[in-house]
Amino acid sequence: MSRTNVDQNEIAKFEALASRWWDPTSEFRPLHDINPLRLNYIDERTPLAGRRVVDVGCGGGLLSEGMARRGANVTGIDMGEAPLAVARLHGLESGVQVDYRQTTVEELAADPDHAGQYDIVTCLEMLEHVPEPASVIRACARLLKPGGDLYVSTINRNPKSFLFAIVGAEYVLRLLPKGTHEWKRFIRPSEMSDHLRQAGLDIHDLTGMTYNPLTKVYRLARDVDVNYLMHAGKPSGE
Known about the structure:
Blueprint: H1 8-17, H2 29-45, E1 52-56, H3 62-69, E2 73-78, H4 81-94, E3 99-102, H5 105-109, E4 118-124, H6 133-143, E5 144-155, H7 159-172, H8 189-198, E6 202-212, E7 217-221, E8 227-233
Helix pairs in contact: 2-3, 6-8
């Protein structure tokens, strides 16, 4: 499964918004707000400096550039042509070097030059937009070196996440464009854990991300009812 695990409607959503990816006041403000949390979470658990990293579903390059600034050798992959063009242009303007490629993670993992070559794989805010998230997880695992680390984030599936991530974020607070997410594609932590274990990975951590609409601040928390991050690792003996 490679190109078949791509939802063209999802790609089109982000293609249409690509020009505003780096505008912190745009529809991508939530990504700008949570990016420092995501970066610190990764960097504290697996120091980025000198690591070879692939950012799956990199979009306009917000996380990719952040990791590169911290000393990582980053490859960013996405299937959206317009977001990648924005990412490359911003990299030229900022002077931050990232290798951007239009490909699926399954295709990259099938390439012997990439399989088993990465210290870190990140797949953040992407799994809820693909038909088969388990296929993405398996491919991410194939890209990792023995002892490598995978970081994923997505949205839990329960009544609270429907209320907060769709009704609240898209219709009431208008933090995201209407239709950004489909509740049925959200992934419970237990389901994510199954995907990770079936891909041969060990689970190291589960952490939530919460948003305070009064202070407009995100923070890491124990509450995983809506947004959450997971850290998994490939056993060093593989």
